[in-house]
Amino acid sequence: MPAGDRLTAGQRNAVEEAIRKAELLSRAEFSVYVGPVTGPDPRAYATQLHNTLVAPTRSIMIVVDPDRRIIEIITGAWVRRTLSDTETALAAETMRSSFAEDDLVGGLRAGIALLADHARN
Protein backbone atom coordinates (compact mmCIF):
# COMPACT_ATOMS: atom_id res chain seq x y z
CA MET A 1 0.00 0.00 0.00
CA PRO A 2 2.03 2.98 -1.17
CA ALA A 3 1.02 5.91 0.96
CA GLY A 4 3.86 8.38 0.85
CA ASP A 5 4.01 10.52 3.97
CA ARG A 6 0.23 10.91 4.25
CA LEU A 7 -0.15 8.10 6.76
CA THR A 8 1.73 7.29 9.92
CA ALA A 9 2.99 3.76 10.52
CA GLY A 10 0.02 3.12 12.82
CA GLN A 11 -2.44 4.40 10.24
CA ARG A 12 -0.85 2.25 7.52
CA ASN A 13 -1.17 -0.75 9.81
CA ALA A 14 -4.86 0.00 10.36
CA VAL A 15 -5.49 0.18 6.60
CA GLU A 16 -3.46 -2.99 6.00
CA GLU A 17 -5.53 -4.79 8.64
CA ALA A 18 -8.71 -3.65 6.88
CA ILE A 19 -7.27 -4.99 3.62
CA ARG A 20 -6.46 -8.39 5.18
CA LYS A 21 -10.00 -8.71 6.56
CA ALA A 22 -11.51 -7.64 3.24
CA GLU A 23 -9.46 -10.17 1.30
CA LEU A 24 -10.52 -12.99 3.62
CA LEU A 25 -14.18 -12.00 3.32
CA SER A 26 -14.34 -11.42 -0.41
CA ARG A 27 -11.50 -13.55 -1.82
CA ALA A 28 -10.60 -10.52 -3.94
CA GLU A 29 -7.24 -8.82 -3.67
CA PHE A 30 -7.20 -5.21 -2.48
CA SER A 31 -4.60 -2.54 -3.16
CA VAL A 32 -4.63 1.05 -1.95
CA TYR A 33 -2.60 3.96 -3.27
CA VAL A 34 -2.67 7.27 -1.42
CA GLY A 35 -0.66 9.98 -3.12
CA PRO A 36 -0.41 12.23 -6.12
CA VAL A 37 -2.26 11.22 -9.26
CA THR A 38 -0.30 12.38 -12.27
CA GLY A 39 -1.60 13.20 -15.72
CA PRO A 40 -4.85 14.70 -16.91
CA ASP A 41 -6.96 11.54 -16.56
CA PRO A 42 -7.19 10.14 -13.00
CA ARG A 43 -9.12 7.07 -14.18
CA ALA A 44 -6.39 6.19 -16.68
CA TYR A 45 -3.75 6.61 -13.96
CA ALA A 46 -5.68 4.31 -11.60
CA THR A 47 -6.21 1.76 -14.38
CA GLN A 48 -2.50 1.79 -15.12
CA LEU A 49 -1.74 1.04 -11.46
CA HIS A 50 -4.39 -1.69 -11.42
CA ASN A 51 -2.87 -3.35 -14.47
CA THR A 52 0.50 -3.69 -12.68
CA LEU A 53 -0.99 -5.85 -9.92
CA VAL A 54 -0.16 -9.54 -9.73
CA ALA A 55 -3.78 -10.63 -10.38
CA PRO A 56 -5.66 -7.65 -11.83
CA THR A 57 -8.77 -9.65 -12.74
CA ARG A 58 -9.22 -10.61 -9.06
CA SER A 59 -8.22 -7.19 -7.70
CA ILE A 60 -9.76 -3.98 -6.45
CA MET A 61 -7.52 -0.92 -6.71
CA ILE A 62 -8.39 2.14 -4.64
CA VAL A 63 -6.56 5.32 -5.64
CA VAL A 64 -6.87 8.45 -3.49
CA ASP A 65 -5.21 11.79 -4.12
CA PRO A 66 -6.22 13.85 -1.08
CA ASP A 67 -4.80 17.10 -2.47
CA ARG A 68 -6.83 16.90 -5.68
CA ARG A 69 -9.81 15.22 -3.97
CA ILE A 70 -9.68 12.26 -6.33
CA ILE A 71 -11.07 8.82 -5.57
CA GLU A 72 -10.88 6.12 -8.22
CA ILE A 73 -11.83 2.48 -7.73
CA ILE A 74 -10.83 0.01 -10.42
CA THR A 75 -12.13 -3.57 -10.35
CA GLY A 76 -11.06 -6.60 -12.31
CA ALA A 77 -13.39 -8.79 -14.36
CA TRP A 78 -13.65 -11.52 -11.71
CA VAL A 79 -14.59 -8.96 -9.06
CA ARG A 80 -17.21 -7.30 -11.27
CA ARG A 81 -19.21 -10.55 -11.27
CA THR A 82 -20.35 -9.73 -7.73
CA LEU A 83 -19.52 -6.02 -7.30
CA SER A 84 -21.64 -3.59 -9.30
CA ASP A 85 -20.74 -0.07 -10.40
CA THR A 86 -23.46 1.23 -8.08
CA GLU A 87 -21.90 -0.53 -5.09
CA THR A 88 -18.47 0.79 -6.06
CA ALA A 89 -19.87 4.32 -6.29
CA LEU A 90 -21.45 3.89 -2.85
CA ALA A 91 -18.07 2.91 -1.40
CA ALA A 92 -16.46 5.96 -3.04
CA GLU A 93 -19.13 8.24 -1.59
CA THR A 94 -18.65 6.68 1.85
CA MET A 95 -14.94 7.42 1.63
CA ARG A 96 -15.56 10.95 0.33
CA SER A 97 -17.80 11.72 3.32
CA SER A 98 -15.12 10.63 5.79
CA PHE A 99 -12.40 12.45 3.89
CA ALA A 100 -14.46 15.65 4.09
CA GLU A 101 -14.27 15.30 7.88
CA ASP A 102 -10.47 14.88 7.68
CA ASP A 103 -10.70 11.16 8.42
CA LEU A 104 -8.56 9.58 5.70
CA VAL A 105 -7.98 6.29 7.50
CA GLY A 106 -11.58 5.92 8.63
CA GLY A 107 -12.77 6.59 5.10
CA LEU A 108 -10.39 4.03 3.62
CA ARG A 109 -11.36 1.42 6.19
CA ALA A 110 -15.09 2.01 5.66
CA GLY A 111 -14.75 1.94 1.88
CA ILE A 112 -12.66 -1.23 1.92
CA ALA A 113 -15.15 -2.97 4.23
CA LEU A 114 -18.10 -1.94 2.07
CA LEU A 115 -16.40 -3.14 -1.12
CA ALA A 116 -15.49 -6.46 0.51
CA ASP A 117 -19.01 -7.01 1.77
CA HIS A 118 -20.50 -6.47 -1.68
CA ALA A 119 -17.76 -8.38 -3.52
CA ARG A 120 -17.92 -11.57 -1.49
CA ASN A 121 -18.91 -14.71 -3.30
From TrEMBL:
Record Pfam families: DUF5130 (PF17174)
Name by which UniProt lists this protein: TLP18.3, Psb32 and MOLO-1 founding protein of phosphatase
Species per Swiss-Prot/TrEMBL record: Nocardioides terrae
